Amino acid sequence: MRTSLDLSRAEWGKSSYSNGNGGQCVEFAPGIAATAGVVPVRDSKHPAGPALVFSAEAWGSFTGAMRSGQFSAPGM
């Protein structure tokens, strides 16, 4: 199923795992989750580019796994 999601007014936040030198930056729009039940994710270096959209449940599982150390982040 494919539906249209207007992200033009989305407020994007940067991942705490993104480094501060302009590389490896991931942004997400948590406010969309409250209204649409999905979490859009994009590359901050290309904000006009495409966004990946995950279910709020999948995003929660991913961020929980990151917090618990199940993935190793480069430079950490």
UniProtKB/TrEMBL annotation:
DUF397 domain boundaries: 10-67
UniProt xrefs under Pfam families: DUF397 (PF04149)
Organism superkingdom: Bacteria
Protein name stated in the entry: DUF397 domain-containing protein
Organism: Streptomyces rugosispiralis
